[in-house]
Design brief:
The complex is a heterodimer of chains A (about 625) and B (about 180). Chain A has six helices and 40 strands. Chain A is mainly beta. Chain A has a single domain, classed as Quinoprotein alcohol dehydrogenase-like superfamily (Methanol Dehydrogenase, Chain A), CATH 2.140.10. In chain A, the strands form eleven sheets. In chain A, strands 3-34-35-36-37 form a five-stranded mixed beta sheet, with no helix packed on it. In chain A, strand 11 (about 180-185) and strand 12 form a beta hairpin. Chain A is globular, with a radius of gyration of 22 Å. Chain A starts with 8 loop residues before the first helix and ends with a strand. The model of chain A is unreliable at about 1-35 (pLDDT under 50). Chain B has about 180 residues and is mainly alpha-helical. Chain B has a domain at about 70-145: Cytochrome Bc1 Complex, Chain D, domain 2 (Orthogonal Bundle). Chain B has helices at about 10-15, 65-80, 80-85, 110-115, 130-145. The longest helix of chain B has 13 residues, at about 65-80. Chain B is globular and about 60 Å long. Residues about 1-25 and about 170-180 of chain B have low confidence and may be disordered. The chains are: A mainly beta (about 625), B mainly alpha (about 180).
Chain lengths: ~625, ~180
């Protein structure tokens, strides 16, 4: 492996020529031997860095001017080395092109950019569009239609979303809502393979962005609100064959935690068949722990990382025990799925705090020693910092001060110190739990800049009352046992962008927003941070202090993730989806009534006012600074 | 010319055993005009879009009494309807049932059919799982939403205290049942 601590300025901004060369080299390498050890380079803050952060990057993530992964890079940093757009000139950004996808539902996720082509996956029915970026306005090259089963529409808990595709080896790979994974020829849009992974009739759907790791496609399921059993699968990139399945509940054989290699750091996570014994008999079969967020991959440890969702049923009194491996962060070998370590973030969840959030992999000095860290800004309101080699919890501090379900984490035991007054119980209503089930942040991904050492967290500020009631399991229907009403949290804001100093575990600044911040974040080497708002503003702020530098009003609320890339002319672009939806954003839809605050699993009580400020949309926007 | 009768007989028989059922009247229709095309049931075929098959027009055998509506509400929660359609049926995974939009028709029979047969976008078919009487009670509850008769109306919405009236049912004052 080679190590380049400081990339030269040419590599940052080398333009299309260098990018194309890198693309060709990477493509050739992949075609020859997809599973060989990868050359790792490190992205650092360069001269702008005072904190010594470095982020691993391999050729499989594509050249810096392109976007091959839904997460930008395997580290999930959502940091781009592109630096043509700066704090000085970002105010000159203008719309270069827009495209309507024709599907006015939640546009979560982000486009891909491969060579001269941009790829966009829509919400159900999960069209894939390819746009020729060399043509004015980005001409449509082709459209691929997978025709998913419409039954899936009514099984998806939180709008009919898709969080993106991955590119490798000439293939665009993504999951459709009905649990199929498709690989599409990136050149001509033809279907190469299609594999069905789950059962829609029983409530399984797939919304996460399929992630290509080496020669495997990594996909998990959604449906934690319907009593499904969570899993993560590894598929052969060439054929679509399922090579391994790692369930989130069940025996060690089924969770792929049987080997001696599996060494959880904390005693609480050690033992045999915890995926069975931490549940009432057979309840693990309906135990949730679905996998619908982001996948990270560390090429130096050859481990992938992900988080699992809430346990089924919601009502905690119906499932005594710690309910493993719901709400856990797990490290696995991408080749065979075998687990290396796991840490359950919330044992015996009582609030629906899925922790499927992004796990950002960064190396940095920690108490004077360079360590391989995993940074996880959580739905629970805490930022967790773990040693990603061992799974040890190094730090857990609240980034959302209203958080009251737990006071703190015990770093010795790995347990949260739960505020029992806020634990929900059958037959009673627990008031003013903060954050709400939607968390202090949702799945919308943060960005990390090695130049500032800051983590930029898209957060929101909801609390809830939660009445736990009896629940019946009926396959293919919600399995909740909870009557939830959310409401705005304390303070006169419902959303915020939090700039968090990872080393010092404290907020440095924040931008408050009137509505939940439900878009992803992008940080760039130009020290610009981009994010969108539910009332449709796309904003650029100064990465060092949060000062607003530019904003543009898009046609609908933003729940997608900004990307940046180099166009065929070598100039830097920014792209974002504008199309409100998702669990919170769906409150802008006509199909949800403002007069029922318990609607949409309780979010209507905190978000129905979106109807007054936005409406459904389906737009792709691309911005650039006009040539002088 | 055949005389056209509303096809009520099969269901009328089945609901005669229900406690609150009301006798179904067969209504005599106007004779069809000469040359009119008729469908298999003897109805005049029109050009307006309609249901997939001729509906058997039946009103809910249950009156909207508080007991019936409360029981419908209980069933709405018990069979997990609330998880999809919202705690007070304001929508979510499935559409709102308390707004002015009826995707598949607002007649009692339309609502009953949606429950019994399911709908394309994920609505399960309950017809083989629930007794007919429970589906009629659910139908009554759904029709009561956002009316003064609604049992357990929703609490006020803190971020939307005065939602506009959504429902327009002849003879019923809208908005009396919920929304604060």
């Amino acid at each position: 492996m080679t190590e380049t601590d400081e990339r030269t300025n040419d590599r940052h901004t080398g333009g299309r020529h260098a990018a194309r060369l890198a693309l060709l080299a990477a493509a050739a390498g992949l075609a020859a031997a997809p599973a060989v050890a990868q050359d790792v380079e490190y992205v650092t803050g360069g001269d702008g860095s005072g904190n010594g952060m470095r982020i691993a990057r391999t050729a499989a993530a594509g050249p810096p001017g392109e976007v091959w992964l839904p997460t930008g890079d395997f580290a999930n940093s959502r940091y781009s080395e592109l630096d043509q757009i700066t704090t000085e000139n970002v105010a000159n950004l203008q719309v270069e092109t827009t495209w309507s996808t024709g599907i006015p539902r939640g546009h979560e996720g982000q486009p891909l950019v491969v060579g001269d082509t941009m790829y966009v996956v829509t919400p159900y029915p999960n069209y894939l569009f390819a746009y020729d970026m060399t043509q004015p306005g980005f001409a449509l090259k082709w459209k691929f239609e997978p025709h998913p089963d419409p039954t899936a529409v009514g099984k998806a808990c939180c709008d009919i979303v898709n969080r993106g595709a991955s590119y490798a080896d000439g293939k665009i790979v993504y999951a459709t809502l009905d649990t199929n994974v498709v690989a599409v020829d990136a050149e001509d849009g033809s279907l190469l393979w299609k594999t069905r992974l789950g059962n829609v009739e029983e409530g399984e759907t797939t919304t996460m962005a399929a992630m290509i790791v080496k020669d495997k496609v990594i996909v998990g399921n959604s449906g934690g609100e319907l009593g499904v059993r969570g899993w993560l699968k590894g598929l052969d990139l060439d054929t679509g064959e399922v090579l391994w399945t790692a369930y989130s509940t069940g025996t060690d054989e089924e969770t792929l935690m049987a080997g001696e290699q599996f060494e959880p750091f904390y005693p609480k996570d050690q033992g045999e068949d915890l995926g069975v014994s931490s549940w009432p008999p057979d309840q693990w079969k309906l135990g949730g722990g679905t996998v619908w967020g982001w996948i990270s991959y560390d090429p130096t440890e050859d481990l992938l990382y992900y988080g699992t969702g809430n346990p089924g049923v919601w009502n905690p009194d119906l499932r005594p025990g710690e309910n493993k491996w719901s709400i856990s962060i797990i490290a696995r070998d991408p080749d065979d799925g075998q687990a290396r370590w796991a840490w359950q973030v919330v044992p015996h969840d009582a609030w629906d705090y899925d922790e499927i959030m992004e796990n950002i992999l960064v190396d940095m000095p920690w108490n004077g020693e360079m360590r391989k860290l995993l940074v996880h800004p959580g739905r629970t309101g805490f930022v967790f910092v773990l040693d990603r080699v061992t799974g040890e919890l190094l730090s857990a501090e609240k980034f959302h001060q209203a958080t009251n379900w737990a006071d703190e984490y015990d770093l010795e035991t790995g347990y949260p110190l739960v505020n029992e007054a806020k634990r929900t119980h059958l037959g009673q209503t627990t008031f003013d739990i903060c954050p709400s089930s939607t968390g202090a942040k949702e799945f919308v991904p943060s960005a990390l800049s090695p130049r500032t050492g800051l983590l930029y967290i898209p957060a929101h500020n909801f609390c809830m009352s939660y009445k736990a009631i009896e629940a019946n399991y009926i396959a293919g229907t919600p399995y909740l046992g909870a009557d939830v009403v959310m409401k705005p949290g304390p303070g006169n804001y419902k959303g915020k962008l939090v700039a968090w100093d990872v080393a010092e575990a404290r907020e440095v600044w924040r931008v408050e927003e009137p509505y939940a911040v439900y878009s992803g974040v992008l940080a760039t080497a130009g020290d610009v941070v981009f994010y969108g708002t539910l009332d449709g503003w796309f904003k650029a702020v100064d990465a060092t202090n949060g000062e607003e530098l530019w904003k543009f009003k898009t046609g609908s609320g933003i729940v997608g993730n900004p990307i940046t890339f180099l166009g065929p002319d070598g100039r830097q672009r920014i792209a974002i989806y504008s199309g409100i939806g998702g669990w919170v954003g769906a409150n802008a839809f006509e199909s949800i009534s403002a007069d029922d605050p318990t609607a949409a699993l309780g979010t209507t009580g905190a978000a129905a006012d979106l109807k007054k400020v936005t409406a459904p949309g389906d737009l792709l926007y691309v911005f650039s600074i006009p040539e002088q | 010319m055949m005389k056209r009768f509303a096809l009520t007989l099969p269901v009328a028989v089945s609901i005669l055993t229900l406690p609150a059922c009301q006798p179904q009247e067969t209504t005599e229709a106007e004779p069809a005009p000469a040359g009119a095309l008729m469908d298999l049931t003897g109805r005049v075929m029109g050009t307006q879009p309609g249901p997939d098959r001729p509906l058997i027009e039946v009103d809910n055998p249950y009156d909207s009494t508080p007991n019936v509506l409360q029981e419908g509400r209980r069933l709405f929660v018990w069979f997990n309807c609330y998880g999809c359609h919202g705690g007070r049926a304001g929508g979510g995974m499935g559409p709102s049932l308390r707004d002015a939009t009826w995707l598949y028709g607002s007649a009692d029979q339309d609502i009953f059919d949606s429950i019994a047969e399911g709908r394309r976008y994920g609505m399960p078919a309950w017809g083989t799982k629930l007794p007919v009487e429970q589906m009629w009670k659910l139908t009554a509850y759904i029709k009561s939403l956002d009316t003064p008769m609604e049992p357990e109306p929703p609490p006020p919405n803190p971020v939307y205290p005065n939602p506009p009236p959504r429902r327009d049912i002849p003879g019923v004052t809208a908005g009396g049942g919920g929304g604060g």
